[in-house]
Amino acid sequence: MQKDNTWTKYSEEQAAACDSFCLKYMDFLSKGKTERECVELIKSDIEAAGYRPLDDYIAAQKPLQKGDKIYRINMNKSVVMFNIGDEPLEDGMNILGAHIDSPRMDVKQQPLYEDGGFALLDTHYYGGIKKYQWVTIPLALHGVVVKKDGERIVISIGEKEEEPVFFVSDLLIHLAAEQLDKKAAKVIEGEALDIIVGNKPLKVGEDGEETAKDPVKAGVLRILKEKYGIEEDDFVSAELEVVPAGKAREAGLDRSMILSYGQDDRVCAYTSYQAMLEVPTVSRTACCILVDKEEIGSVGATGMQSKFFENTVAEVIALSGDYSELKLKRCLSNCTMLSSDVSSAFDPTYASSFDKKNAAFLGNGMVFNKFTGARGKSGSNDANAEYLAHLRQIFAKEDVNFQTAELGRVDLGGGGTIAYILALYGMNVIDSGVAVLNMHAPYEATSKADVFETKRGYVAFLKHAERL
User: Fold this and answer.
1) Over pLDDT 70: what percentage of the chain?
2) What's CA 200's distance to the chain center, in Å?
3) Residue 206: predicted pLDDT
């Protein structure tokens, strides 16, 4: 299959539209560094486009009708949205699904300590990372602290020019002979990923006699108390994420790429919900589900394995007519879905890790992975040929540039998405999304053309996908 570079197909007008869309996407990346922040941004956008809370309809027992646009948020970390069509829900929906969590470091529940004249926060890394990539770079602290009385304090430190940043230290090269003999997985241990948050001791007597012990820690605690009203015990009921500081940036002299934290998988989340907003009316109900916890197995109440999605679809069916479990099962089994997640982009520096014939290339359009998994497709959702043919027809109709890929060489690569979870209902599902270079690194790279083309692909899918 010939893989055409998308830039060569764009007119000046299309290239300008691509740039405009990607600048808005970059702003989303810069502001949405956590699941909670992404949900707030998404909520603002979709409400401005006319989406209303499903729970308002439930409370009022207001029936759903064609053209109603509704959404539901789960624990401030995942969101599902529906655009109701005129076809019966029993016949299924067209679903876009992605995740909004990204690899990072999470602050532990008993994190603050002093050692060697530094105050540090102990962390536990989240998702698959190369730990050595996270040292010596500017880091920011995002999240919430909920006090015993229920007061919720939002934390974001390190993004503004006037704010301090944090960092994980590394051993200087002059003393690193033993460290450099270690395997890459052991160069930096997980327990060594503690961020330095202070070095200035509180003077004895400023805050009572107890500050004579651990005075740097005491100084940090005083700042937390004065600026945020946070006590040390409040870390127990906090969710604080350590992420790379700074905004998304254009990359390359030609500004053809985007370099940013969190593109896995916020690039697919953003393009998915924006596609929903571009399709105001549908015949077949359109749905977009953006979830948490994919990077650690889609577990927990906010992950795809929870019953949140199924329960919400049940509520939608109930408000659309007579509910039954059979109708719910028919709806879910008759859906067609794009499990929107990133794919690994071919990297010429590490060419031996890829099967070049079956690799995704930056700039060559939206990516389809018929299967993922590892070691003989283990853990994979493997889409059927009929569904792929249907999608080919849709993208040919809308002139969407796409490519197919695998996640690395056989017996070397592997990975998974939320696809296999939705496939349990019996619906047609395939992995699709954007090729990413430096995947799971603090800064990941994408092609603007791929981002824009993926959004176009999702729009085409919502318009034309049918029950098979």
Assistant:
1) 94
2) 36
3) 58
Of the ranges 66-70, 233-237, 411-415, which one carries the lowest mean pLDDT score? 411-415
Q: Which residues of 374-398 are buried (b: 16+ CB within 10 A; e: fewer)?
A: beeeeebbbbeeebeebbeebbeee
Return the structure tokens found at 195: 């961020």
Q: How many CA atoms lie within 13 A of 69 on its CB side?
A: 17
Whether 353 contacts 413, CB under 8 Å: yes
CA triple 76-80-85, angle to 5 deg? 155
- Judge whether 435 and 367 are in contact, CB under 8 Å: yes
* Domains parsed from the chain with CATH numbers: 6-102+261-464 (3.40.630.10), 104-244 (2.30.250.10)
Q: Which tokens hold the place of 166?
A: 């944090």
Q: Any idea of the CA torsion for 84, 89, 91, 96, to the nearest 10 degrees?
A: 50
Nearest to 454 by CA among 278, 211, 242: 278
Euclidean distance between CA atoms 96 and 270, whole angstroms: 11
Q: Exposed (0-12), middle (13-18) or buried (19+): which is 102, by Cβ within 10 Å? A: buried
Q: Which residues contact 55 (CB under 8 A, 6 or more apart)?
A: 72
Q: What is the pLDDT of residue 411?
A: 55
Q: What is the CA radius of gyration of the chain?
A: 24
Distance CA 305, CA 422 (A): 9
The CA distances from residue 243 to 57, 138, 195, 265, in Å, are 37, 9, 11, 15
For residue 373, the model assigns a pLDDT of 61
Residues 6+ apart with CB under 8 A from 227: none
Residue 362 DSSP code: T
Q: Which secondary-structure segment (H or E) carries 397?
A: helix 385-397
Query: pLDDT, tens digit, for every residue of 318-338?
Result: 999 889 999 999 999 999 999
pLDDT, tens digit, 9 for 90 and up, residues 255-268: 999 999 999 989 99
Phi first, then psi, for residue 385 (nearest 5°) are: -65, -35
pLDDT number for residue 352: 87
The DSSP result for 295-330, as a single string, is GGTS-STTSTTSSHHHHHHHHHHHHHS---HHHHHH
